[in-house]
Amino acid sequence: MPHSNPEAKIFTCSQSNALAEKIAEVYGVPLGNVITSTYSDGEFQPSYEESIRGRRIFIIGSTNPEPRNLMELLLMIDAAKRASARHITAVMPYFGWARQDRKDKPRVPIAAKLVAKMLEAAGATRIITMDLHADQIQGFFEKPVDHLFASTIFLPYLQALNLDKLTIASPDMGGSKRAYAYSKALQSDVVICYKQRAKANVISHMELIGDVQGKNVVLVDDMVDTAGTLTKAADLMIERGALSVRAICTHPVLSGSAYERLENSKLEELIVTDSIPSKPSSKIKVLSCADLFASVMYNVHHNESISSKFIM
C-alpha cells in the first residue's frame, strides 16, 4: 500500500528556477518536471510532465512586476488544480504588486488585493511568502498565509560583522517598525530618515531624525527598487559623520539605473536575499533564503510547527 502522506512535490516558475533548485536540494526531493510551450505571439502554456493527483505540491514563483511572472504562477496553479492536486501552495519569495496595498489617492487600484483574489481563484490553498511590503496584505487572503521574516537570515550575518557603535536606520517613516525590531534584537540605537516624494521613485527632500556621528549604520528595508532612497540616505549619513553605511534589503528589485547608483554611492555593501535574481556587483552581498523556505515547506507538509520562523 502507498504511504498515506507521500512526500510533497516541488515545481518552479521560470523566473525562480535558480532559487527553486536550491530549495529542492535542501528539502531533499528532485525539482518536478514542467515544460512550457510558447506560441509565436508570446502566449505560453505550462504542462506538468508527471502525475500530481492527490499530492501536496509547492509552486515556487516570485511575482516581480514583469507581468509574465504573475501569469505563469497563476497558470501553474490552475493546471495543478485541474490535475487534481490535493494541496497547492504558492511559494512567493517576493510578493509583487504589494506597494499598491491601499488607495493613496482617488481612482487607483488596490493591486495587492487583486493579486490575492486571483491566486485564490486559480486554486492556491496556501501562500508562503517573505517580508511583505505591508503586513496587512495577509488579511487580503481567505486562505492561510505564512509570512516569513528575512531577519532570521540577516541577523546572524550582522552579528558576525561585529560592528562597534552599531545603529539601525530606517530609510523612511513606514519602515520604522522593522528598524525597531532589528535594533531590539541587536540592542542598538535607531535613526529614521524622513523623505518627501515629488512622485513615485523621485525624492524631493530627505531629512535625518537621530544622530549618526561616529556610528556604523545599517539601513533596513523590505526592498530596493531604483536604490534612490538608499543611496541618498547613505550619502546624507556620511555627511553627518557616520563611519560606515550598509543596507539590508530583502528583495533586490534593482530597476532603472540602480546598479550604477549603488556603485557610485557611499554604501559599503548592500545585503540582499535571492528572492529575486540579481546581477553580480562588487557592492552586493547575496544571502540565500533557500534553507528558510525549504524548512518551512517541510514543516508545513509534515504538519509541524513553523512559529520559530516568525521570530523577528
UniProtKB/TrEMBL annotation:
<keyword id="KW-0067">ATP-binding</keyword>
<keyword id="KW-0545">Nucleotide biosynthesis</keyword>
<dbReference type="InterPro" id="IPR029099">
    <property type="entry name" value="Pribosyltran_N"/>
</dbReference>
<keyword id="KW-0479">Metal-binding</keyword>
<keyword id="KW-0808">Transferase</keyword>
<keyword id="KW-0547">Nucleotide-binding</keyword>
<dbReference type="InterPro" id="IPR000836">
    <property type="entry name" value="PRTase_dom"/>
</dbReference>
<feature type="domain" description="Ribose-phosphate pyrophosphokinase N-terminal">
    <location>
        <begin position="9"/>
        <end position="123"/>
    </location>
</feature>
<protein>
    <recommendedName>
        <fullName>ribose-phosphate diphosphokinase</fullName>
        <ecNumber>2.7.6.1</ecNumber>
    </recommendedName>
</protein>
<keyword id="KW-0418">Kinase</keyword>
<dbReference type="InterPro" id="IPR005946">
    <property type="entry name" value="Rib-P_diPkinase"/>
</dbReference>
<dbReference type="Pfam" id="PF14572">
    <property type="entry name" value="Pribosyl_synth"/>
</dbReference>
<dbReference type="InterPro" id="IPR000842">
    <property type="entry name" value="PRib_PP_synth_CS"/>
</dbReference>
<dbReference type="Pfam" id="PF13793">
    <property type="entry name" value="Pribosyltran_N"/>
</dbReference>
<dbReference type="InterPro" id="IPR029057">
    <property type="entry name" value="PRTase-like"/>
</dbReference>
<dbReference type="GO" id="GO:0004749">
    <property type="term" value="F:ribose phosphate diphosphokinase activity"/>
</dbReference>
<keyword id="KW-0460">Magnesium</keyword>
